[in-house]
Predict the structure.
Amino acid sequence: MTLVEPAPAHEVPSLHSALAAAATGARLDAAQAEALLGAGGDDLERLLELAAALRDAGLEASGRSGVITYSRKVFVPLTTLCRDRCHYCIFVDTPSQLRKLHKPAYMSPEQVLSVVRQGAAMGCKEALLTLGDRPEDRWPEARAWLDEHGFTSTLDYVGHIARLITAETGMLVHLNPGVMSFDELETLRPTAPSMGMMLETTSERLFAEPGQVHFGSPDKDPAVRLQVIEDAGRARVPFTTGILVGIGETLRDRAESLVALREAHERHGHVQEVIVQNFRAKPRTAMQGVPDADLLEYVAAVAVARLVMGPDMRIQVPPNLSDPEEFALLVRAGADDWGGVSPLTADHVNPERPWPHLSELAARTAALGFELRERLTAQPPFVLDPEGWLDPAMREPVAALADPESGLAATGSAGRSVADSGETDATTPVLRPADRILLNVRQTRGLPRLAEAAASDPLALDDADWVRLLRAEGADLDALAGTADDVRRYTVGEAVSLVVNRNLTSTGFRSRPSADPTTFTLDDAAAIAADAWDLGATELCIQGLLPGDAAPSAYLDIVRAVKASTPGIHVHAYRPQDVRDLADRGGLGLDGALAALRDAGVDTAPGTGVKVLSERVRALVAPGDLEIDRWVEGITAAHRAGFRSTSVLFYGHVETADERVAHLRRLRVIQAETGGFTEFVPIPLPGAAGGVALVPGRAPLDEHRAMVAVSRLMLSGSIPHIQIPWTRVGRDAAAALLRSGGDDLGGALLDGRVRPAAGVEHGLELPVTDAAAIAAHLFRPFRQRTTDYREVDPGRKTATR
């Protein structure tokens, strides 16, 4: 956002004098910080140099030279009700919105545990509790829920949930419930080793003036927030705070905010990290038309935060709010912490900005000359001084996960149940919490409870349990679908996504022009890609065996022609069967074929060309498909070669429920080995050979609801996205399936103006406006995505209305 009301020039010292002061290690005042925040050109380069040097000195002094940290977390949105009205927030709901979404006022303990247990199984050690400020003060519905469940306040419930999480999973809770009094901080201290609240800004104007971002939000009064930070220090709470850049504040506001944080820390020593967060505009907010924070202004703010706060402070930048290409600038600016990153849950505050994959974050960090190391929710100095900073109730849980030398996360440590940590008789089996639930479920034989157990720990169910869920009907099916949708909501979030793409069927390739409209030449491929790009597509999907008389090199030639004409388009190309054809007929071998495809310009791969991972089914339904073991070999090799892919199951033909379960289990195994699947698509097989109900007499929509819901539950914590094949089920049914655990509508499937019939599913299109309308009907946000579920460049986004 462009800055407003810059401070008068005579109040700001010269930039060069401020740089000189910073170079000597002087304690910068607000006026000097303001001057530095305006640096550009060579002066900005010098500012980054000074900030990086100060960061490096601090890391060396702490014994962590060359280390950038992060916390592996799950994000728990305990309630989205709030008494504030911030003009840029989409996290918050009203009670009427919750009713439309079929969403509870507060997550139940069971819903919370279903998320955090999966996170613990994935190695997460932090559960971040984020929620709106004191919703019961504004909404009678919140007060009624708390009264009904026996809690005096939202903060009382926060403490209960925090204790439950640590007792059941061993994970450490970071509390982010907004404004708290000194007494409330002390009350919550035994439940969590750290807490946080963004200062955001000290600007009184943004709070007091009508129309400004914090007007009407009592908890955004800068004086109130500064008092919370002060009280957290008095209460000896390791505290995370920071500033938000680009919400209308001036350079002076930014400078004064950073100085205020430094002064609070100097009094109490409790600020464990300062987040410098860049504003990102959100749809459906008062600030939706405001530009995002300027990159260089943001980078300057990171550098000045480092210089103001000194070498011993951890300066955190959220990696999902910046493009990966911008990471180098942030690291050069003195950042040394990426904050919490989740392998399971979305950033529910910024749902349009997916987390980077941890392997990718580690690789990018290494490319910048740093090692990525995992920390706990409390930073090492506080972990290593438990008597000074941790409540006695928190010392054992923290010690169980901490490396005693560095204070970082212990290598190989994972959440565990404190309740289960005592000694037991060698003949007595130790049951995980999910095992206890499942044991009770099997005794009571309640299918809704079985679905809850699946939500908590998919690996705890046996094949017979999953078959029961696949066969659910009536009220049991409604409960199954609702549980799956809760898992979707609290993991990947509320957004319904779509990629704007076009299909090109490589079986239609011809070396010479043909009158057949389903065919194309290399020149046509180039024109098709350029046309799709002009229409707003970001992806071209190419798949299908080449004709027998075509040279295998044509697989590569098609991709080269596409990339030559349209370098920016994402090529999603070639099934394992197609790659095997190139490997065998081209004499390249599997690894050689994959390397050649990468060099030609392929970006990701379709995981299609298989119906069910069963040789019995393949022989009966699709004997021309690649043998199952060779398909698995091919998709695994593609993942290991760096290609991410989709995954599918075609159901409703001759397969049994057990074969569906076995298919999903094998996908989980592949995913555990490679991490290469981005999504799973359960596809009903129509026509004379398909459409067979798993449960005789069950309505087709219910067949699909059961399949989607089981897919969500069984793959949760493994393959994140469940795509609804709208071309097979229709738009109305697709909307129902998005309520059963689905979160994605696949592709727009543009036909285009050049050889439109050359793509599979020709004649079926889902324009962005129509997809957005489906999401709006469900009262869920719509998100146009890239093939690999990243944010689309703003210049490539298609208008939704």
